[in-house]
Amino acid sequence: MAAGNSVVLLSGGLDSATAAAVAKSRGFSLFALTFVYGQRHDIEVEFARKIANFLSVTSHEIIHLPDILFKSSSLVRASGKAIVPGDGVTIPATYVPARNIVFLSIALSYAETIGASHIFIGVNAVDYSGYPDCRPEFIEAFQNVVQMGTKSGIQGNPIIIETPLIRLTKGEIIKLGLSLGMDYSLTTSCYNPSGDGIPCGVCDSCRIRQKGFSEAGIQDPALHRNYGK
Amino acid sequence: MAAGNSVVLLSGGLDSATAAAVAKSRGFSLFALTFVYGQRHDIEVEFARKIANFLSVTSHEIIHLPDILFKSSSLVRASGKAIVPGDGVTIPATYVPARNIVFLSIALSYAETIGASHIFIGVNAVDYSGYPDCRPEFIEAFQNVVQMGTKSGIQGNPIIIETPLIRLTKGEIIKLGLSLGMDYSLTTSCYNPSGDGIPCGVCDSCRIRQKGFSEAGIQDPALHRNYGK
């Protein structure tokens, strides 16, 4: 069931691990990309390596982005801003300017360079932090850029942006990943972990993760890392 | 006539220099970005520095892109491919996968990070090499991504992609730049210059430049570099 090559965006988090597991289950070879951009939670890069290894990816590239980007976000250490929970209504201070646009653009260029037909990204617009670049309207707009702005696109064979999680709840995502054999002990979600990688338990991302495992009715296998303590 | 801050994509070529001069003439402060991506003509980065200096930009950042990108293009040294003129119908081998998508995405993130309201890019769809990411349809699609995928966009104040040259001939671009005081001796266009920066005179970009100066009825001030010899 070889489906060809796909580029998968792998952050080290639960969603991207699940999206990558979906790509693998559909028979794709996985070319994983992980981005380093001054994030406080850069320990996620080590988790991305574990996930890449677990999923037997064909290659895993770690991309260092220019440090002039993203510095207005509290997720970035250089911002000097504290991580505070969002209000669930407005876009929170953790918003990273155009992050998924940059990630998808680089994935797109890489896909066209290596001849991959699909890009998998674990965006989700149900249990999420309210970022505009996680919504279906954004993905549709980006797909149109692929159609209009790439050689493969105007030749009628555009690279496809796959978002298998976009309309699932966090609980549904976890159940999907477990059904595919994903090991969530290899993932991390906290925006602001302590130096040894222990999650804070109170940031938006920790809380959404906890809600997901609760909905799925199982214990978070990362709890041995004192998740949420 | 302060118009605020703009990000300008500055390659070292004639078009981007003109687009930057337009931005300056409209009263914008210029935050220039130049990309290094293994291009054969990386001497253009030195020309970009000269142009940035000439236009008194507020800042000029040189961005090194990951070397896994773009390697299928003959413009990139690591491709091992020779530069050959295009046929004017199909997309030529100099096509760089998703180049302007990557450039605009990084410019967009930078603009939103620093609070710039406009991005100037010197794309042109008249006298050009046939790249899909230089056409108005692509720019419109990318503008829609800004609307859908950024905080400023969904808050009704999207960053504007400015393409002041998109429907001009090369001759018109040169006349526009000269009317704004641009010094084209500071620009380079050749895809495949010799080690000391002397243009080949036969690549698509050299030929389009020569045609432009011929149409404008003036001599290319870069001819002192033996342009085209």
CATH class of chain A: Alpha Beta
CATH superfamily of chain A: HUPs
CATH topology of chain A: Rossmann fold
Q: Extract low-pLDDT stretches of chain A.
A: none
**Percent helix of chain A:** 25-40%
Main β-sheet description of chain A = 5 strands, parallel
**Structural domains of chain A: how many:** 1
Give the overall shape of chain A, derived from the CA principal axes: globular
- Average of the residue pLDDT scores of chain A: 90
Assembly context of the chains? homodimer
Number of continuous helical runs of chain A: 7
What percent of residues of chain A are in strands?
5-15%
Strands side by side in the biggest sheet of chain A: 3-2-1-4-5
SS-derived structural category of chain A: alpha/beta
Q: Rounded to an integer, what's the Rg of chain A over CA atoms?
A: 17 Å
Order of SSEs of chain A: EHEHEHEHHEHH
Largest inter-chain interface? A-B, 42 and 43 residues
CATH architecture label name of chain A: 3-Layer(aba) Sandwich
List key phrases describing it:
homodimer; 229 residues; alpha/beta; Rossmann fold; 5-stranded parallel beta sheet; 12% strand
Q: What is this structure's SSE topology?
A:
The structure is a homodimer of 229-residue chains.
Chain A: E1 4-9, H1 14-25, E2 28-36, H2 44-54, E3 59-64, H3 99-114, E4 118-120, H4 136-149, H5 151-154, E5 160-162, H6 170-179, H7 204-216
Parallel strand pairs in A: 1-2, 1-4, 2-3, 4-5
